User: Fold this.
Amino acid sequence: MSTPVIADTTYNKDNPFPAIITENRLLSQTVSQKETRHFVVSLAGSGLHYKAGDSLGVFPTNHPNDVTAILQSFGAVGDEPVQPALLKLHEPIALREALHTRLALNAPTAKILATLFTRVKDSAEKVKLAGLLAPEAKDALAVYLEEREYVDILAEFTSAHLTPQEFVDHLRKLVPRLYSIASSPREFPDEVHLTVAVVRYELNQRKRFGVCTTFMADRTPVGSAPVPVFVSHSHFGPPEDLAKDVIMVGPGTGVAPFRAFVQDRVAAGATGRNWLFFGDQQRAGDFLYEKEWNAYLVSGGLARLDTAWSRDQEQKIYVQDKLREQAAELWAWLRGGASLYVCGDAKFMAKDVDAALHDIIAQQGGLTPEQANDYVKLMKKEKRYQRDVY
Assistant:
């Protein structure tokens, strides 16, 4: 039987638990083009409960560099009182607090440009704004906004003067980020593990930071500063029948819940087999939890492990290619009642894996595309095909 979900009566999204990060270690190797980290978050004393497949919600704060840059653009010190309407506050708070902990400073909308257009005094700035806001510039506007944050726009249109209150009224709430939990409560009842790709890049001659990933990686000292968290329960999870086989497809950080699945099934004494498909750019730099997977292969916790490294050879190889390579065996598992789980990128990977699944079922099962589609629909209905994609 799976671990029962116990209602959390005290801490939740509206009242997050002040957790402590007790471990922050680099998972990826120095040759990797990525920075992937393993975090351990203590839930001790929270009364929070989770199951394999759940996620942890984390409330971040904004990068102090961004807050300072915005304050400087206003010539503000940060003590100015503001009362953003969307926060529904009973009384004003300091501008610095609003920018640091309450409001999102990224993903600007056309609304800020429209407001600036009414305020700019410089003719060149007004012409530029008019061009961006023209009906025929819809595509160009989308690209412009995607490449900028609010601080960039304020720096670009310096002749427009907004009050702090006018500015914060354009911002959205700073929302929590959800991360798939990479541990099982059967092994770690008082803590959760997270597998996080830290986002850092440069755009328009300015360094950018993933709001929550760098909050955890850089700005939350291990063992001290509290991190507001809550458990987000999910229907995504391993089968309750421990005799059932499980096929897991989780490239990159999409492998996180499957580490929880395997831990959970091993701890529960599952007799069903576990098969993992994992992939990333380079084997030498991106083989997340390699030692753990190899140990599970030896102990039997993993029956099979297939890996795809997209940049280790001239022709790129992805997890969907590995699925097709193992089509006959995959079909045998599915016919035997195995459940298939997919976690990770929704835009490309999940779609390609889904297409491969349909093709494999049609080819190996001697079915028409329509019959294969019906088979997949039945798998979904029976909860034998589940996806956690983003």
The longest strand covers residues 17-26.
